[in-house]
């Protein structure tokens, strides 16, 4: 079937069927022909996923605990899916917001929109070589790369190196628009997916033009695309390219671009709205999502105990009690013993029927920021053995987050010691890849960066990616009697594909029945 389906039919196909291929098969709206640049720009609005992967990543990480494991209470979770994700089990009970099904489906729908835009651009430029749609092509390529980047980091093992990751099962990389409702797709290797992401980034970045956007920070503008590239190459451990892209974000004086933490706010909503303010120079890309993440707080799972003391409400190399930036900005989760939350993930509810009290829960994400990009650069500088420059970046972060004591090499080395287990985690990087070596002189700096990254990206989901790429082993106490430990090479570091996707024939992530900590085995395509 050729592209003769309207958008309503496409949505019905996506939600009324259970095929994994349907998620990859979103067809364009042909009620309006894609015959000029403006119409393609409008289509590219759909090339940004409306799914929020934070719930999957945060519950999988060490940023949440099971309150039932420490309290004399029997709290219930917001959804059964939360119980399954926290225990690193397959989520079988939900296709709603924040579920594996939702993240998978929305990411591939966004990728499909990017592919249809790219096809239309190629056709129009063939017909009229003078037509300039380079900016739209750049945006589509970066969007396609980012959709796959999220998918591979959620549903696959972390990138290790070119040879080791050629043995790890990845995701399908969709590069062609769909002309049939049900196509055939196979999973590639993690190495192959990373190669294609890099190709799209490098092809798309130079084409981006901020002048083509009415509100650049709602799109992959130049700095947002560079921040994405810096994060990608950090994960891939191409440190010179991290510097190349991060430097274009940070300019000559990064301190002037950092988030201002000095403001006073009277409510969580005020904090939430300010955090995603497009006028702030620290915010590079703001993405709206459909998410009920905020409703987790005050349920069975909380940002509490060691999760809290190791990040938002714990000491650091230049502060005591809590990072100064959070002073007066942390709120209790229903009851004080349930933990705290920082309302960067404040929910915005859209009523479709106020009388019935129904509608859609929205959460806008500061998807890329100057602050996180600075930490990407600092990490790259450490591995390039440019430690004084890395320290200078860390001091910029330290000062901007209101610490009054200057961060020094002495403080880093004296604070990040093996006995400080809340902040210093064993790194199994060299076990994952023989080329991923953290030297003795580098490790205190890396531990500091991982600590700062945990604070900076709290509730964004990136802590889970850091745990995966460094092979950090963590444990989840589940209730009073069960403890699950995630080893550095555990199968469960790749969240299981949606059940309906597996049922339709997609190869699932491997698991071993009766062996919860089974060692990951090579993938043979």
Protein architecture, described:
- With 525 residues, this protein is mainly alpha-helical.
- It has 18 helices and nine strands.
- Helix 6 packs antiparallel against helix 7 and helix 9 runs antiparallel to helix 12.
- It is globular and about 65 Å long.
Provide the spatial order of strands within the biggest beta sheet.
2-7-6
Terminus-to-terminus distance = 29 Å
- Shape designation: globular
Which ranges are low-confidence, i.e. pLDDT below 50, for 5 or more consecutive residues?
1-20, 25-31
Q: Structural class, judged by helices and strands?
A: mainly alpha
Percent of sequence in beta strands: 5-15%
Give the helix proportion (percent range). 25-40%
Average per-residue pLDDT, rounded, comes to: 91
* Major sheet description: 3 strands, antiparallel
The count of strands amounts to 9
> SSE order, as H and E?
HHHEHHHHHHHEEHEEEEHHHHHHEEH
């Amino acid at each position: 079937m050729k592209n003769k389906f309207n958008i309503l039919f496409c949505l019905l196909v996506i939600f009324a069927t259970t095929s994994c291929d349907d998620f990859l098969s979103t067809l364009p709206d042909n009620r309006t022909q894609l015959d000029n640049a403006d119409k393609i720009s409008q289509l590219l609005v759909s090339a940004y996923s409306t799914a929020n992967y934070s719930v999957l990543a945060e519950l999988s990480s060490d940023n949440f605990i099971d309150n039932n494991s420490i309290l004399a209470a029997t709290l219930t979770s917001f959804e059964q899916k939360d119980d399954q994700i926290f225990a690193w089990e397959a989520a079988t009970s939900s296709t709603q917001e924040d579920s594996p099904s939702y993240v998978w489906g929305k990411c591939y729908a966004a990728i499909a929109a990017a592919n249809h835009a790219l096809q239309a651009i190629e056709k129009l430029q063939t017909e009229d070589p003078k037509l300039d749609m380079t900016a739209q092509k750049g945006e589509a390529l970066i969007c396609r790369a980012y959709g796959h980047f999220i998918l591979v980091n959620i549903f696959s093992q972390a990138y290790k190196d070119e040879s080791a990751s050629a043995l790890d099962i990845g995701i399908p990389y969709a590069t062609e628009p769909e002309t049939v409702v049900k196509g055939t797709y196979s999973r590639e290797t993690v190495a192959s997916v990373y190669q294609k992401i890099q190709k799209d980034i490098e092809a798309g970045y130079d084409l981006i033009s901020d002048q083509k956007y009415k509100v650049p920070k709602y799109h992959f503008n130049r700095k947002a695309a560079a921040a994405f590239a810096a994060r990608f190459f950090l994960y891939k451990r191409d440190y010179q390219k991290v510097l190349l892209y991060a430097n274009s974000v940070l300019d000559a004086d990064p301190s002037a671009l950092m988030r201002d933490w000095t403001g006073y706010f009277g409510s969580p909503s005020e904090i939430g709205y300010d955090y995603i303010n497009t006028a702030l120079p620290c915010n590079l890309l703001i993405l709206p999502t459909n998410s009920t993440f905020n409703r987790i707080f005050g349920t069975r799972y909380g940002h509490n105990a060691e999760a809290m003391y190791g990040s938002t409400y714990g000491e650091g190399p230049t502060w005591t009690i809590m990072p100064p930036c959070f002073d007066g900005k942390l709120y209790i989760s229903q009851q004080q013993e349930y933990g705290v939350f920082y309302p960067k993930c404040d929910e915005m509810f859209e009523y479709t029927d106020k009388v019935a009290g129904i509608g859609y829960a929205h959460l806008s994400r500061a998807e890329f920021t100057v602050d996180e990009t600075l930490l990407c650069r600092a990490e790259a500088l450490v591995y390039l053995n440019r430690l004084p420059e890395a320290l200078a970046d860390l001091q910029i972060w330290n000062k901007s987050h209101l610490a009054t004591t200057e961060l020094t090499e002495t403080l880093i080395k004296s604070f990040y010691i093996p006995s400080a287990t809340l902040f210093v985690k064993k790194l199994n990087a060299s076990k994952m890849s023989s080329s991923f070596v953290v030297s003795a002189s580098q490790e205190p700096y890396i531990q500091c960066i991982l600590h700062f990254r945990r604070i900076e990206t709290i509730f964004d989901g990136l802590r889970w990616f850091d745990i995966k790429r460094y092979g950090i082993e963590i444990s989840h106490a589940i209730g009073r009697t069960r403890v699950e430990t995630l080893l550095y090479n555990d199968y469960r570091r790749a969240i299981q594909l949606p059940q309906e996707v597996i049922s339709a024939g997609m190869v699932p992530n491997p698991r071993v029945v009766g062996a919860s900590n089974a060692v990951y085995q090579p993938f043979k395509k």
